[in-house]
Each structure stands twice: as C-alpha cells, then as structure tokens.
Amino acid sequence: MLGETIRLAVRAIWRNALRSFLTVLGVVIGVAAVIAMVTVGQGSSAQVTQDVAKLGTNVLMIRPGQAAMGPRSSSTSERAFDLRDVDRLIREVPAIETASAAEQSQMSAVAGNVNYRTTVWGAGNAYLDATDWPVVLGRRFVTGEEQGGRAVCILGETVRQELFGDTDPVGDKIRLKSMSCEVIGVLDAKGASSFGSDQDDIVMIPVRTFQRRIAGNSNVNMIYAAVRDGVSTELAQGEIEAVLREIRRIGTGEEDDFNVMDMKQLASMLTGITDVLTGLLAAVAAVSLLVGGIGIMNIMLVSVTERTHEIGIRLAVGAQARQVLQQFLVEAIVLSLMGGLMGIALGLGLAALASRIMAIPFTPDPVVVLGAFAFSALVGVVFGYFPARRAARLDPIEALRHQ
Amino acid sequence: MTGDSPAVIELRGITRVYGRGEAEVRALDGIDLTIRSGEFVAIMGPSGSGKSTAMNVIGCLDSPTSGEYLFNGVDVAGLDQDQRALLRRHYLGFVFQGYNLLPRTPALENVELPLIYKGVGAAERRGRALAALEQVGLAQRADHDPSELSGGQQQRVAIARALAGSPEVLLADEPTGNLDTHRSAEIMELLVRLRAETGLTIVMVTHEEDMAAYADRLIWMVDGRIADDRPTTGGARHAG
Ligand SMILES: Nc1ncnc2c1ncn2[C@@H]1O[C@H](COP(=O)(O)OP(=O)(O)O)[C@@H](O)[C@H]1O
Ligand SMILES: [Mg+2]
Hints:
heterodimer; A: alpha+beta; 6-stranded mixed barrel; 4-stranded antiparallel beta sheet; elongated; B: Rossmann fold; 36% helix; disordered C terminus; binds adenosine-5'-diphosphate; binds magnesium ion
C-alpha cells in the first residue's frame, strides 16, 4: 500500500512537473544555501587551521596590551617591550628555545627605478629559527650585523621577484625610506595564506636597524618565542607570564598588561570567527528553508482544493480518511525530498565552485548532507500535514459534488 | 421472481433532515423499503423529492438522521465515516450521472481504483480490471484517458469500475442523464445483462419512464416519502 502511495505521489508530482518544481524551489534554494554555507565555512576553517600550522604550532606570540586581537594602539598606556625583555626571556625561561622581537612597518622598497610597497620586518635569526624559515639564497644575518644594527636585508620571494626578477639580488642595494641597505639573502617561498596575505611579501632587517632607522625608538611591540620540543605550550606560557610580570612589576592581583598567545589559540580564535559567521549565514539560509516549507503548504492546499473531486471519487470507492491523509502527506514528503535532493546537488556544486575560487579545501560533510535531507523530509511532514488533514476530512458527497 | 430471496437492504422509518428550525428540509421523511438480493429497482420522482439523498443513505455515503438501516441484516445506520468506507469498499458500487472518472488517468487505472483500496496486488488488480472492462466491451480502450472516450464509453468505464470490486449492490444515480436515447438503451441493456450474469442487486434513479421500464420494480418518491411502489410491466418483459 505504501509503495502504491509513493508511486501515485510521484505520478501526481510528475503530472504537474513545472508547478511541482516551482513549489519546491524554496526548499531547493534553502537546502542549497545551507549546504553551500556550511561546506564553504568548514573548508575555510580547515584552511585557517592548516595555515596556522604552517606558522609553527610551537610558536608563542607575545604582545603588549590585554586585547587578544584588537587593533594595535599606540597609546602610551600600552607599555611596549624592549630588547632587554627579549634577552631576559631567552635567559630566564627554560621552556623556550629562542625568542625574537618582530616589528613591522609598511613602506616602499626601491631598487634602481623599481618601486614596490611591502612590509619591512625588524627581526633576526631568532625569528627565522622560531618559525623554521630557511634562507635559500645568500646567507642569514651575522651577529655583528644584528648587534650593530647594520643596513643589511633579506628579501621574501615576492619582493625579490618584484625588484629583481629572476636575477640573483645578493650584493645589490635597495633603499628603504632614506636608508640604503645591502641584500644578503633571499627567504624560502612560503606562499599565500588564507587570510589573503602573501607571506613572501616581506623585507627583513635586523631589529636594531629597524628601531634606529625606521621606528626611531627602542620599542618592541611583538615577540615570537619558540617552545622547546617536548615542552607543553601551556608550561612555556606560564613561565613567560611569570617572568614578564616580574619585569613589568605587576603586583599580585593586578591583571597582565600583555598577552601570550599560542598558535593553536590563534587558530581556534580565527576558526571560531569563521564558525560564527558560518552559523549566522546558515541560520539565514535555514529561514529560507522555512519559507520553502510554507510554499509547499500553500501549493498542497491549492492541490487539495483542485483535487476535491478526485478525493470524493476515492472516498466513494472505499478509501478511508487515513488513506487520503497518507496519500497527500506522502506526496508532500516526496515533493520536498525531491527538492532536498536538488538542493543538495546544487549546494555541493556551489560549494565546490566557491572552494575552487577561494582556494580552500572542498570538504563536503556527510552529516550536513544527511541532515539537510532529513530536514527537507521534516519540512514535507510538517507543512504537508495540514493540507493532508484537510483532504482527509472532506465529506464524500460534498467532495463528489465539487467540480 | 425475487420474492423469496433474502433482503439486502431494509430501511425502517428513515429520515434525513438538512438544516435546523426555519431552514429545516426533510429530504427523507420516513422511508420504509426492502430490497431483495438480485432485484433491479428504479426510483423516480420529481426533482427535489429526495431520490439522491435516498441513494446516498443506501450507499453509505451519508447517515440517516433517524431510522433503522439493515444491510444484510446488520444495522449500519450508526456507523462512522471509516466504517461506512469499509462497507462501500466491500459491498457497494456506484455509477453517477457525471461518470466521475479520474481525469488524465487511463480507463484501466480508473477501473483498478477500488481494487487498490481492497488491497489487491498489482498483477491481479490489472487482470481483474481488464476483465471488468471486457464485461462492458471496452477492453481495447484500456489505456485511453476519459477525455478520449465518448460519454457512453465513459459511463461503461464507470460501470466497469463499480463492478471491479465485485459489489453486492450497484447504485446508479441517473446513469443515463447525460446520454442520448440510443446510448441510454445500451447502458440499460448492459445493466440488465450484468444483473443476469452476476446476480447483482441494482438500485437506479432515473427521470425517464423508458429507462425505468428495464427494472423489475418502480418506486415513486414525492416530498421525501414513497408514494408508490409496484412491479413494472417492462421488468417482466426484460427479466424473462
Ligand atoms: N447538502 C444539502 N443541504 C441542504 N439541503 C439539501 C442537501 N442535499 C439535498 N438537499 C435538499 O433535500 C431535498 C432532496 O434533494 P435530493 O435528494 O437531491 O433530490 P432529488 O435527487 O430527488 O432531486 C431537496 O430539497 C434539496 O434541496
Ligand atoms: Mg438527484
């Protein structure tokens, strides 16, 4: 009997193919939107995690101020670190292997008549060690260059390409503001990150050079620390906090005026933002699914009215109320399941396309797909029930008289 | 000829009242009627005299307001909607003036309809529906939609549908009302033949004396009552 009913439902839907399609369009769009949103969202979360892992999972970021990711404020209330703090961390925190200041500023780099705007980093060998970043051409800094704040630089691959093309730049000079500095090496290419930034768009100079010639002060606004192998980042974090509180004379009971963040925390914070956005968009999409359900109810009600005579005939030959109910309910469910299937196909297609364009992994989640399918069946049940009940309650004589 | 066969339908003091108070209409106003197995009964009467209401009550599409209705000796006057559906499914077949076939649905599937609700499997259903179409002479039109059939053919499909469920009683409310004299006579001859072949009991409402003459008994209704009930002369002629 149920098989018969399903066959009948498919027939009735097919008989009005265009109208049926328009009826379920709401469900198609709703399901497609939810699937596309969630799939793309999960893909970008995966990408963020992957990118952060590339930065090194054993790296800690230490910054002045309490706000974890807030905009850098230059207010004096936010006490910057200085290079002595970095040295003390290296000496007094056994859990870290090395630490490096990492200052940055946007400016033009000029070589000959080529002018290219990039980010200049004041850091040093310790930073390259902390982030496992090798120099592939030329050499790293020597101690004298770091201590003396010499005008030497190492180029990221992008800057090398922009200023020198494929030629070897080692030994050539570039100009940063009024400073002329010698190129001593080229960094290994890291590629683009999912935050949209090109990690190779960088010119690295010793931090003392940066302080003297570019910043004009001895502030350090960012410290990268590499945790020793086999030591937990939580332990290192704790030790760093203790040392910094002592250096900065923060009394017991007072809050830290700096923050130490682990890359995993950074990753989870970033994916957290992505997840919240994904959730919001999916919720909006789910509303359209609800609207789609109301569309189905509307058309099913029209269909019950149109087919009142048919219902009368069925009742006359011996159909019981629940058989009529079942017929219309099954029709609504089959209809919305068809919509669900189309929506899944469309949603996955859109997600695949978007993932390609955004260069993020395409990771369809079977739970989400099955969930959307089940939800569209639910839409059919919920919004098909009322019209079906109306059909089942018709009086046979009235229904037969209806033309 | 049927005087000694068992009663299929017994109505005792049946009334059917529509509306209340001022607007009250007594469509059936105390009907006593016994119809025996194998009878062919025609009901005539002026428009509004309660013929269709009587058919609906007999056919269990409707319940009487008061009175007793015994179907095969069982009181069915108080059955609920679903129980009446079962009674229709297993014992009753209907033919209407307007054919009442499902549109855009082939004749064969229309005839199969009652068998679906009887729970007959697809293969057997098809065979029985084809046999019923054969009985009304339309087996070769099995896959035609109603819109591709003439009025007379559509009514024969409707008769095949009523027969497919092997009912005891066939109820026909003005079955020839939309047909010309020639087609009407064909339908009547079909009913008479089916009754002879299967022992079916037939109750038919008609406006035409000529059609009533095919029955063996004529009931005349006026204002919701039975005004006259007697054998037809034609009934003797055709029953022979
Ligand atoms: N559903 C209904 N509601 C109210 N009055 C009705 C209804 N059906 C029939 N009637 C009334 O009952 C009376 C008998 O109707 P009906 O049985 O259709 O007569 P007939 O078939 O003999 O022409 C008429 O007066 C009609 O108006
Ligand atoms: Mg009538």
